[in-house]
Amino acid sequence: xxxxxxxxxxxxxxxxxxxxxxxxxxxxxxxxxxxxxxxxxxxxxxxxxxxxxxxxxxxxxxxxxxxxxxxxxxxxxxxxxxxxxxxxxxxxxxxxxxxxxxxxxxxxxxxxxxxxxxxxxxxxxxxxxxxxxxxxxxxxxxxxxxxxxxxxxxxxxxxxxxxxxxxxxxxxxxxxxxxxxxxxxxxxxxxxxxxxxxxxxxxxxxxxxxxxxxxxxxxxxxxxxxxxxxxxxxxxxxxxxxxxxxxxxxxxxxxxxxxxxxxxxxxxxxxxxxxxxxxxxxxxxxxxxxxxxxxxxxxxxxxxxxxxxxxxxxxxxxxxxxxxxxxxxxxxxxxxxxxxxxxxxxx
Length: 347
Fold this sequence. Notes:
This protein has helices at residues 22-25, 42-48, 64-68, 88-93, 106-121, 124-132, 139-143, 161-171, 186-190, 199-205, 225-230, 248-256, 298-314, 327-330; strands spanning 4-9, 33-38, 54-57, 76-78, 98-99, 153-157, 176-180, 194-196, 208-211, 236-239, 262-265, 285-287. By secondary structure, the protein is α/β, with parallel strands linked by helices.
């Protein structure tokens, strides 16, 4: 009989079903741990929740009601960067650490952000259509109206891991860079050649604005109509962060009325996008289906990370990437003391 039960909804997220749990189990071998699937419904999860020593969260929303049904759970592990589909506040109130994979797909997303920047700037999709549709002579006149990339300004909203990796790439193209992030020390920006700036300055002086905010209750709908009005008319808006951080109706209006020149978007307010979304019909917008993190290493890397995090907590250690408020470590987790935690939060 398994010593530890790790509960997970049946099915898989971001990949095909039935892939098994070999990667997750690599770090859990010899611990008497078993990953057990339950129905991917709130009711099915709640029925199985009392048996869970840990939860592998994937494939569905995890509500406060579901988390409240966990009576002995030590850990909720996510195989993604985003944590918006788990009620972290409810988990914190129960004294349950929630972990994500914050550094597993950084390079891929930074590549994608740079790809969208370059493709929107050089009008890649429009140029491709001109060739395919026999409009060869239109290509050069369009690009003759576009300034060279070198010397233009890239502004970041939030300057976390992906933004920093994007900045390293952008530097090679000769871009000036600014960033708004009140939670990052100035030296953390200047070391990468990025100038700390206010949000207003980033918006009003940047030729490219790259959005990197996570989806939290505080950041939802952050970019509003008045923000897009502050941007330069030739500016391009890039978003590889989270769709709900942007008021999409305001973005659409900004594009339709020419407040900004275009956009490159990997994330959207509602996903998948609806067929009647006006963004689908805009020639000055390049879209991708929230796949910036995808590469051949995506599944193995994230699944192994989940297994590593679960192995740490089930052996009485602190996880690598706890996303709960820091107060969790000193107050709500007093019941962890018998397990002799060996790591500090976020260590």
